[in-house]
Known about the structure:
Three copies of one chain form a homotrimer.
Chain A (H helix, E strand, L loop, with lengths): L2 H12 L3 E3 L14 H5 L2 H9 L4 H4 L6 H12 L6 H14 L11 H12 L4 H8 L2 E5 L16 E2 L1 E3 L1 H5 L4 H11 L6 H17 L4 E6 L10 H12 L6 H22 L3 E5 L27 H6 L5 E5 L5 H10 L3 E4 L8 H12 L7 E2 L11 H22 L5 H20 L2
Parallel strand pairs in A: 1-2, 2-3, 4-5, 5-6, 6-7, 7-8, 8-9
The structure holds zinc ion (3 copies).
One zinc ion binds next to loops of chain C.
Enzyme class (chains A, B, C): isomerase
Organism (chains A, B, C): Rubinisphaera italica
Keywords (chains A, B, C): Isomerase
Amino acid sequence: MSDSLQxxxxxxxxxxxxxxxxxxxxxxxxxSKSLGDIMGYHYYTELAHSAGLAKNKIEEPGISxxxxxxxxVPKLSALENTAQYAWLIxxxxxxxxxxxxxxxxxxxxxxxxxxxxxxxxxxxxxxVLKKSGLEQVYLTNDFDDPLEGFDTSLYVPCLxxxxxxxxxxxxxxxxxxxxxxxxxLGSIEDLQAAIRDLFTHFTKNGARACAISLPPDFSxxxxxxxxxxxxxxxxxxxxxxxxxxxxQLSQFVFWQLAENCxxxxxPFDLMIGVNRRVYENGVFQGxxxxxxxxxxxxxxxxxxxxxxxxxxxSVLTSTSNQELxxxxxxFPNVIANxxxxxxxxxxxIEQDCRTRLTAIPQTxxxxxxxxxYKLEFALPKFRMYRRILAKVLAQEFVVDRGWSEKxxxxxxxxxxxxxxxxxFGR
Amino acid sequence: MSDSLQxxxxxxxxxxxxxxxxxxxxxxxxxSKSLGDIMGYHYYTELAHSAGLAKNKIEEPGISxxxxxxxxVPKLSALENTAQYAWLIxxxxxxxxxxxxxxxxxxxxxxxxxxxxxxxxxxxxxxVLKKSGLEQVYLTNDFDDPLEGFDTSLYVPCLxxxxxxxxxxxxxxxxxxxxxxxxxLGSIEDLQAAIRDLFTHFTKNGARACAISLPPDFSxxxxxxxxxxxxxxxxxxxxxxxxxxxxQLSQFVFWQLAENCxxxxxPFDLMIGVNRRVYENGVFQGxxxxxxxxxxxxxxxxxxxxxxxxxxxSVLTSTSNQELxxxxxxFPNVIANxxxxxxxxxxxIEQDCRTRLTAIPQTxxxxxxxxxYKLEFALPKFRMYRRILAKVLAQEFVVDRGWSEKxxxxxxxxxxxxxxxxxFGR
Amino acid sequence: MSDSLQxxxxxxxxxxxxxxxxxxxxxxxxxSKSLGDIMGYHYYTELAHSAGLAKNKIEEPGISxxxxxxxxVPKLSALENTAQYAWLIxxxxxxxxxxxxxxxxxxxxxxxxxxxxxxxxxxxxxxVLKKSGLEQVYLTNDFDDPLEGFDTSLYVPCLxxxxxxxxxxxxxxxxxxxxxxxxxLGSIEDLQAAIRDLFTHFTKNGARACAISLPPDFSxxxxxxxxxxxxxxxxxxxxxxxxxxxxQLSQFVFWQLAENCxxxxxPFDLMIGVNRRVYENGVFQGxxxxxxxxxxxxxxxxxxxxxxxxxxxSVLTSTSNQELxxxxxxFPNVIANxxxxxxxxxxxIEQDCRTRLTAIPQTxxxxxxxxxYKLEFALPKFRMYRRILAKVLAQEFVVDRGWSEKxxxxxxxxxxxxxxxxxFGR
Lengths: 426, 426, 426
Ligand SMILES: [Zn+2]
Ligand SMILES: [Zn+2]
Ligand SMILES: [Zn+2]
């Protein structure tokens, strides 16, 4: 296979403006203010910590962004091989006129200052959106987000529901829900009404998805409200639930969410497989891992019970990818969604992309989302994906099946953008 | 690695006539009668359904084959990327003089009519066998198949035993067994004798294998007849078994099969890992999926207890492939068999083939079987496999190890055909 | 990607002298005495047995090394495709001037005699170390090894602890421990003191690691000495422990080892995932397999409890590799170590190496160890790894990221040797 073929396909894919269907962007502070925002991304802090930098050096209270970057820089040499480091270099070269291959103790201050100049421009947010070819950016909003003060046609709200499913046993979460919906939550019917209110609020404000991340052992199933009503009352009286009761409450709330997805016609993004706080002394957002012993068979009841709901599914590991391929191939309501977190490095993306593209209907694979916290990361992450997609299209379709390049690019456009519009659009 | 090397190896592999060691061919209607038979293959109906075509459109009672094809065609555009679609196009181009790249609402009727002409020829069955280089086709026969009215040296019987192991709790299955063996099945000894009768009947008619597909949680072990005798009596009296009792009966019958494989010198094909009817409202044969949490360690007792029996093993997922590689490498009676179902797409085949060819004795890997329901599918499926095998031989053996092309082709022939003869032949 | 690029990188990697951080070398008989030592390696006996050679042919008591080789040779033709066979040919060509591609019934006796001449040289051990570029070889020593009579700066002791953790329920193991430490082991405190004695003895003699292989279901956790003290007394009185009690004793001893690794500043090599004696009638060392349903989450308590201990981890299967990548990426004390046993063939190494090199800090991946029993195997095994490493460096770093070849080679040197020195050195 010629490298120039792959390069031509990549250029065609690069030209396509994007919708990013899952991010953690704060619409009130979407772009970075300094290199500290960029290098403060958990990928860099957790990898630097993994390579030996103490957590209390990284997270010392009160240090300035520049001081933090200065502490991280010496450890960067240990991370130069990683895909994550390649994103960082690409950001610096594309946006900050950085011309070196490495960030070192010698060159970082110049880079920091240059970044300050660029990021300090009043229209930087618009510039970075344009340079990155981003037309829409989907958010991850807390259930009690007022969704005010930003353009929801550019920054599209999504209702994130981890707190509702897994943390309603905490009084502060119940209070947030009560306040957000202006309801007393005494009865289980109140809880149901409050959840419905959230969907009304979010869809009124242009929300395009309900979303949640799930631990490896979660198995959704229908739990009758009569079963959990007494648990809900216990919580109201300030009593604790045992593990089994809390698990049933989680299942009950999860099922409510799915039912509201039917009513409000929202896709339900499932991000499956993460155990929170496995490394208890890790840095912020650098504590989560997983148990690979999980299966999509745990979602059998859900997929069968909600044929009207579309479930874009992300799996944390490549060992779960074949299940995702097979379940998307069989279930009309299951969609393979992006390349998530621990599988978001080139070798995993390539194999997962290749297996999806050759087995799932082409309308059922959403190629990529950036999962970014700051806008600058869309460009290098999507570029990494587009390179890999170009490689797979070149090998599997142009070379092996004799497709024209035009046809391969059309398939690429569908995977990169067309399916986002069809699946999340309205 | 040069593409022409791979191409030369492929041509050598293409020239080899085949024995297809596992199919679902009906020897009384082996070839397709119309394009409806070809596009009615569950891969197309389930993928079209997955892409949004309603089950009741596909399976509406009484519609003609042409009507059915006409309903499927508009959905085909969503499947053009899949390996399964590539088989379909290859069939149409090889057999029906189809010259387009895609089947569309514009060209399908011409194609349908052209297929009718070809398939309507009185000697089409012989033609397709010849064009596909098929010398023998192994079948999948119900235990009560009379095995009459066809040439068993061309269409080789295999005793399929899923019903015996998993459905003897149903009275109609017991009645079929009673009728097939002309025995009253009152006692557990009667059941044992009936099973022996089936082996006698099948081996008299040239059977070459006993075969079964197994769910992910099955663990065969020896259960004494004394344990299940009372359960058998309960069934005879019309009583139900509980789950544990039914599971023990399954294990008992499975062990009986293995014991008969010793006596009758038959290999025992195990197809491991499928859960039936996971998607309850799926189309016919498009409802089965799996739980990847399964292990060949569950077969430890079996492999140790029956050193005289050869177990050609198919695994449903590529995540089970490394276990198959390792178990075939250690156990003399374990054979890696083909690339099955959800692993039967090019990226999975390539990785699984590569790992097997570099670690298992070359006499212990049966390269491929088509699993086809109609003869026309052998050509595109085996061709897909031969392309991949040529690629692996070129890269791993000619380039990396400096083998001559001749030697690589000899290895390819062994994997494609020689091992089928040694392992299943008599 | 050009083959010559890969070739140039390989040559650079080949030039680097090595430290082999895990072997089973007997320092009193490190080199082979005859071809029988080489072909008696379990890879050849188990594969020949798997291909049909009876165990009693291979292990018949009293046969000479030459007779044994003569019996294995006819079966070698079935193994020519395997990576293991490629090691054998490479040994014969590099060391014994063998010029054929295959070992056959015609040429093996000449080869045997030629090997005798080479291996019979008085300085062969030094020769093979030199030809293989080996500067240090780490051992696997029984806990009661006197560690005398060899140069521990060349052959570096490592304390292997499987017997302590899993076999202290056997009186002969307790007696060996008592004798080695010259202690009565009446109380649990005696046991703790004896374990400490072993660490003193080993570190005095230059030991660089504590090591253990672990079954798939092992989950280390803190068990108080008070819990196991009565079990220890039971054992002392000649009573048996039940399974749960024995498991707690294993956990207790394991935790003691980790605590001593803190005190004595030793890395703790964990080789995770092997079930012993799965194939009960297999040849010597050819009986072990595994259950892939295992997870590094089982080690969560350990990694959190011992931040001061470095855990170089080997996983038995490539299906566990992504967990190893992710856990090394997050936990500062987790290191990805080599490519072990059933994952030590080129396709698994390549994918595992590629995923590690693009996601783990480059200081946290120890590329390879030979696991050899005789010195002659270091050359072909490391050469296999270096070829693959060169391929990954060429593709992922030089081609995809535009690195200079020099920079890629530096990364390769770090992975091959630098990290061994940093992680195991003192
Ligand atoms: Zn996210
Ligand atoms: Zn089949
Ligand atoms: Zn070892």
